[in-house]
Amino acid sequence: MNRNMGRQEHCATITTLNDSQIIAYYKGPECTNSQNVYIIHTRQNRIIRTINLMTQTGNPVLFIYKGLIHLITSYFDDIGRNLESPKTPVDRWKFCSLWHYIFKIDHYGNLSLQNISKMNIDVGYLARCAPIIYRDEIYLPLYREMNPMGTIMKYNGKWSFVGNIGENINYDSRYGKGVLIQPTIWRENNLFKALCRDITRNKRAWYSESSDGVVWSKPVSTDIWNDNNSIIAINNTKGPLIIWNEGEGRSNLNLGRFEDNKAIFLKKLNERESSSYPNYHIDEVQNIHIVYTDGGKISYKVFREDDIEY
After folding, report:
1. pTM of the predicted protein model
2. What are the phi and psi torsion angles at 201 (to 5°)?
């Protein structure tokens, strides 16, 4: 299945519950006051409801926990702890708070908001990639753009800090001290593992691992192309699949395996320009749902894990 969801849409996320699919993304000119998150509830290929969140929201991430639908999204606060403020529009991502929305689907099949709360975390953290479930807890990868690094938080009814990826690296990038943003995580061989977006001139994704999610290894550069785009690792049962852009720019969106520090090509998802920012969800019958930015709109594809030839 491949569905185009509209125009000027970016940074999508997806989850499913029973026979419903919930997709969220932000829409509108980026880093403006009119940018905001939309939530689309679909069932049997029909849009049931569209929810438009407040303006200045972005970077949504969806997940299911104990039968409820959770959404994490950023909000442009435009002020830091020491009263700093953005100097350019894109700097607004460095001054965001995080908000936690909880929805449910009632016995009539309607999506309804249950709660909104501001997360107790410093200004400047953002979500991007899908979380994973480990020991009945949600492990959510976050990142910051000012002195960038990755951060893992855990949710079991309340939020707690777990650990950082790529912290205190003395490398001068356009974001300050640091080399990576937007970690995507998975579990393999009793380890937490992460691939992260590069922000250096290297143009290759970074890899780090951890035995407990708290202390992470020093990131090492992989052979995976990563030129100003986001990468995703799919936490599936056969070993990690990854989605990445091969070559320069945001075209040639590929699906493959991560093996020996390399991307092993399996399938082309899209060749057009501005095919980027993938995200995923695996449902209860092992269908893999993928969403990504596709030339100013969101494309949505579904296939079974068993249909992929490794």
Report:
1. 0.95
2. -85, 0
CA 280 – CA 169 distance, rounded (Å): 29
HSE of 30 in the Cβ direction (CA atoms, 13 Å)? 11
The domains of the chain are located at: 2-307
For residue 283, what is the enclosing H or E element? none
Of 300, 299, 297, give the one whose Cα is nearest residue 9: 297
Question: 41: which DSSP letter?
Answer: E
Amino acid at 171: Y
User: Which class would CATH give 2-307?
Assistant: mainly beta
Query: Smallest Cα–Cα separation from 282: which of 224, 230, 231, 241?
Result: 241
CA distance 290 to 255: 11
Distance separating alpha carbons of residues 142 and 223, to the nearest angstrom? 23
Q: Hey, how many other C-beta atoms are within 10 angstroms of the C-beta on 36?
A: 18
pLDDT in tens, 115-146: 999 999 999 999 999 999 999 999 999 999 99
The answer for 44, left when phi > 0, alpha when psi is -120 to 50, beta otherwise, is left
Which of these ranges, 61-75, 77-91, 263-277, 287-301, has the smallest mean pLDDT? Answer: 263-277
**Long-range contact set of residues 263-267: C-beta below 8 Å, sequence gap at least 24:** 263/222, 263/223, 263/224, 263/225, 266/241, 266/308, 266/309, 266/310, 267/308
List, as one string, the DSSP characters of 70-97: EEEEEEE----TTS---SSGGGGGGGEE
- Mean residue pLDDT across the chain: 93
